[in-house]
Design a protein that fits this description.
InterPro entries: Zn_M74/Hedgehog-like. With 64 residues, the chain is α+β, with helices and mostly antiparallel strands. It contains 1 helix and 2 strands. It has one domain. It is elongated and about 35 Å long.
Length: 64
């Protein structure tokens, strides 16, 4: 859920947040959707804040 040309920085949450072209906004929405789905099921974003790295911690509040 990132443009390959954006390389490693695009792996982190909100990389696309301040980009306003349609494709970047689509990637931002997809990443937010994935985070929401995972947090709805008790997962927490990992400490590096990569959009795909989660820890199962249902007892803790959301961290995004």
């Amino acid at each position: 859920m990132r443009k390959g040309e954006d390389d490693t920085p695009a792996l982190f949450v909100d990389f696309y947040k301040d980009k306003f072209d349609a494709e970047s906004q689509s990637y931002q929405q997809l990443q937010e959707w994935l985070i929401k789905v995972m947090q709805d099921h008790g997962f927490h974003l990992g400490t590096k804040r990569e959009y795909f790295h989660f820890d199962y911690r249902p007892e803790m509040p959301r961290n995004y």
